[in-house]
Specification:
This protein is an all-alpha fold and 153 residues long. It has helices spanning 2-23, 38-54, 72-81, 84-87, 93-110, 131-140. The radius of gyration is 20 Å and the shape is flat.
Length: 153
Amino acid sequence: GGRKQQAEQENDRGAAIFTEINKAEPIKLLDLPGVATKRTRDIIDHAASHYRDAFPAMFSASQKCRAPHLNLDNLREALFASEVIKREKMGSGGELVKWIARKNEGLRKQYAEGEMDDAKSKMENGKKVGQATLKKARKHDFYLGLESTWLYK
């Protein structure tokens, strides 16, 4: 079965390439050459990796993940796009880690037990935060994935 076997191998190779292409994630602006300085990228990478390592249950491999989860690359891109490093004149990854910690603290207060349990609070895009979403954020004390307004405050 020389020809048949060859055709099957080509089909398998084609299927593998197709699968690989469909799994590919778009490159982030921050990772394109000449867009962000190495220093800016290093600061963002340090902080984003810090939070992924500190809150593994709250990070998803999918760039299409839903609240309260974050995706590492999406977080990196959002931090870059918000220009927080420039705006807050940050010089290190540690400074960004502390700044993000303060933002999480602010969201914890905003989504505090009692005040929020009627789930009337709206996310910045107008959607309500569901009880299960809120429960998971509270369980892990990680609120950054509930909304993105904190990046701009």
